[in-house]
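Recall that a protein's primary structure is simply its ordered list of amino acids. Everything else, from secondary elements to tertiary packing, is in principle encoded there. The following example makes that idea concrete.
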Amino acid sequence: SFAYFTIKDRLPQILTRVIDTLHRHKNEFFEEHGEKGVEAEKRAISFLSKLRNELQTDKPVTPLEDELPDAALWNQYLDYQRNLSNGNGEPSWFQSPWLFVECYMYRRIHAALAQNPPIDNFDVFKEGKAQNFFESQEAVITLCTYFQELLKNIKDLDEKQLQEELFKLLQVSLWGNKCDLSFSAGEDSSQKSSPLQSLENMIPYILVNDMEKLWSILVNAKKRNTEKSNVRVDIILDNAGFELLSDLVLADFLLSSKLADEVHFHGKSIPWYVSDTTKHDFNWTIKQLQSANHMWMSRCGINWEGNLKKGVWVYRDHMFWTLPHDFSSMAEVAPDLYADLQKSNLLLFKGDLNYRKLTGDRKWEYSVPFHQALNKFHPAPLCSLRTLKSDTQVGLKPGQGEQIQASEPEWMVNGKYGVVQFDAAL
């Protein structure tokens, strides 16, 4: 299975990269923190080398020994996995659900640094995320330019034209999800070509296309909206780099077209899955745009900083997004987050990991309804924008998955197909 390949090959590669990154920064740690920095780097590397060995030799998954705020929840979850195995020994790296051990690895990487001050705030994935952004520069310029030109006459667009523009930017945000560093084990995954040119040709690769439903939910929310209540859209972010930029453009369009009054972004509270967006990545991206020597890039950055200051954009992170739990347990594990999401008119979940957590990462029949796979997770109307990079997919027409499988055995994991999949949460 793809899960086996991931645990056997991709995860050790990612750990090796992390260890190399720490090695390369040794001098920097020494300059900043003296001997203490070098000692911390050595301890972190030995912790990570041990982790890599545990993974490769299929050792049992051990409880977390750190004092970080989420440790107790992780260890409870490990107990839960133990009980699932019905006494068939301890859960180990190759004998456990893929989603669990993959999340567990990233949590252990975090612990390796968090437990070793003074380098405890070092993001081992930061360079890769920055590189992805800079290598996608042409696509960034194209998208910022297109968007700023669009804003000039957005007030004159009729409903049909607004809908067309929304669909275009939803597709850019969908295909932006291809730029995923954990998928390529940290290899180059930047957006090189124009993100707008090939949209028409990509439509056949959207296996579930519920864009019309998104349009009507936004338009109806607008109509129902009284003076007192704002239309709120939440974007649960995935990757930093070009994908994040495509999400920010989409968010700005929602505000500028008056389809939404506020957008809430949800990122990760710790470095996660190589390229996932943290608060630092979010702010860094806006600052990079502001200071760019390209007129439309800097215009985007300045406007977006303004949106944050005015409070019409809100960035937040929550520990729950970096726990191993499916979203169906959010109401129980993180009731505060669930209650917050219930205030939204529309939740947009970006990317593959969010999709796996929405559907419990199970080997569903392809035609099982999305609503059923969500397993009672319905805080608000929600939509997944996801390119397929793992072998779970629901909500297809009968026979649709089998038909693609016959001609393309890798269709679920090669990032070539996408879904814009909606659930009304009723």
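Residues 2-115 form a domain with the Transcription Elongation Factor S-II; Chain A fold (CATH 1.20.930.60). The chain has a mean pLDDT of 95.
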